Amino acid sequence: MNDSNQEGQGSARAGVAVPEVLTIVSAEVRMLSDTAGDLQDLIGNLVVAGAFGGSQSLYQLQSLDRLCQSLNAVADFLAGVANGSSADWKVDLSDAARAVKLADVCDRLTGRTAASEPSGDLTGEFDDFENWPMTG
To answer: In whole angstroms, what is the distance from residue 8 CA to residue 16 CA?
Structure first.
């Protein structure tokens, strides 16, 4: 797992317009919402297949739907603030970039790209569920 944003090429940009930063963060939050929505679909299929039982489990799974809705609401809010912000307002992303421990997220948030980007590879852990006991 690449958990250091210092390994990417280039540095965080200084003097970035606030609307641009907010738009980028809004898109990142929306991407998280989409991922949570995909998980919600997967869990829904598992519920239909009988992998989860009891009303308490179903009630707790509704939290995933609330998470998706909340993430979308935050993304909408950030996009709205971006639209109402002046392009003359600038920020230095260096300190904020140092606080982000996941390199791929940091790179997306700062607009930084690696010198030679791997094709489709994302940093992070990969779990092989094929050998997991519950997958038959």
So the answer is: 19
The residues, any chain, with a CB within 8 Å of residue 117's CB and separated by 6 or more, are none
> Any idea what DSSP says for residue 17?
E
Written as six digits, the tokens of 67 are: 């998470």
How many Cβ atoms from other residues are within 10 Å of residue 57's Cβ? 12
CA neighbor of 28 nearest in space, from 96, 109, 113, 114: 109
- Residue pair 75/34 in contact (Cβ under 8 Å)? The answer is no
Per-residue pLDDT of the chain (136 residues; tens, 9 = 90+): 444 444 444 567 788 999 999 999 999 999 999 999 998 888 888 877 877 666 677 777 788 889 999 999 999 999 999 999 999 999 999 999 999 999 999 999 998 865 434 444 444 554 544 544 444 4
Q: How many helices (H) and strands (E) does the chain have?
A: 4, 2
Q: In sequence order, which residues have a C-beta less than 8 Å from that of residue 3 and are 6 or more positions away?
A: 101, 102, 103, 123
The CA–CA distances, whole Å, from 90 to 59, 87, 99, 106 equal: 44, 7, 19, 18
Contact 39, 64 (CB under 8 A): yes
